[in-house]
Amino acid sequence: MSRRDFQHGLVIGKFYPPHLGHEYLIRTAAVHSQTVTVVVMGASTEKLSIAQRVQWLRNAFWDHHNVRIVGEIDDVPVDYQDEGIWQAHVEIMRKGIRQAAERWNPQPPVDAVFTSEPYGDRLAKYFECPHVCLDKARSLYPTSGTAVRANVAGQWHMLSPAVQAGMALRVVVLGAESTGTTTLSRELTDALHQRGGIWSRTQWVAEYGREYSANLLALTRSNDLQATASDIAWESTDFVQVAQMQCRLENTAAARGGPVLICDTDAFATRIWHERYMSAGNAAVDEIAANMPPRALYILTSDLGVPFEDDGLRDGEHLRSWMTQRFRTALVAQTVPWIEVHGSPKSRCTDALHALDQLIAQQWAF
C-alpha cells in the first residue's frame, strides 16, 4: 500500500504547556499535509493563558508556512463516554478551524487528524477522515503536559527554545548607580550554577546601557580628550536603543538557558534612567517596557551602606538616594513581586536566593 499524504491536517490539544512531543506531532503533520490547522484548547481558569500557548507555538513554527495556529477557550468538561460532551468539544474545534480560515484563507475540509492519543480514532470519525496516530507509547518523546506541570525543571529538556523562553522565570536586579546590581546578579547566577543539573544552564543578561554609555563617552572624547561621563549629551533616542537591545539580549538568553533567567536591569529600569537624565518620561521607552515578556521578580539593591565607586562611567553619586526612592515608587505602582535587599553582598545574595526559591515553588504550582 502506498503512503498517503493529505490536504488539510488537524492537530488539537491543550498544549499545557507545549512540549517536544506536541511539536513532533505538528511537525510530522506539516510534512504530510498541504496545510495544518492547530487548535489550542484550554480552560479559562488554567494558569498559562491560551494566548501564551498560541504565541509560543507560533514562535516555534515561525518557518513552517503551512502551519496555522489558533486558540479557543474550552471550558467543557472531559468525559470520553458522553456523546454530548464530545459534540461540544468538536464544535469548539470547528470554531478554531473557522478562525484559521478567517485569519488566513479557507482550506478544504479536514482530511486527516493527527494525535498521539487513544481518543484519536473517535475524533477522526467526527471529521469523517483517517486518524494518524504517532508515538502513542511516548517512546520518541517520553513526556506529557502532566509530567511537565508536575516538574517543570526536571522536564525542561523536553521544551523547545521557544517555550523555554516563554516559561523562564525572569528575575531582574535593578538599582541606582554603584549599589551592587551587577555583583548581586552575577552572584545569583553563580549560586544557581552550583546547584548543577539544569540549573547550570542559568543565563546572565548583562546591562547593555553600560556598554552604550562607554560608547557615548568614547564618541564624546573624540572631540574632547578630557571629557567625563557628565559631559555626555544624552538624547531620548539613546534610551530607546538601550531598551530595545536589552530586550533582544534578554530574549536570546531566555531561549538557550535554564528555568531561571537573571537580568542585570531591563526596560522597566530604562524608563527610570530616562527620567533621571532627561527629567521626563518617554512614550517609546514606556511602550517597550509594557511589551516585555512577564517578569517574575524584581530585586532592588539599596544604596544604604554601599560606597560609591567611580569607574569613569558613573556621575550620579549625589542622586543615589533619589534614584533608589524613585525605583521604590515605580515598583510599588506595578504588579510584579519585588524585594529590596540590604547589608553585605553575602546577605543580599542569601535574601535574594530565598525569595527566588519561594518564587519557583509558587510560579510552577499548576
From TrEMBL:
<dbReference type="InterPro" id="IPR014729">
    <property type="entry name" value="Rossmann-like_a/b/a_fold"/>
</dbReference>
<feature type="domain" description="NadR/Ttd14 AAA">
    <location>
        <begin position="170"/>
        <end position="348"/>
    </location>
</feature>
<dbReference type="InterPro" id="IPR027417">
    <property type="entry name" value="P-loop_NTPase"/>
</dbReference>
<dbReference type="Pfam" id="PF13521">
    <property type="entry name" value="AAA_28"/>
</dbReference>
<dbReference type="InterPro" id="IPR038727">
    <property type="entry name" value="NadR/Ttd14_AAA_dom"/>
</dbReference>
<dbReference type="InterPro" id="IPR052735">
    <property type="entry name" value="NAD_biosynth-regulator"/>
</dbReference>
<protein>
    <submittedName>
        <fullName>Transcriptional regulator</fullName>
    </submittedName>
</protein>
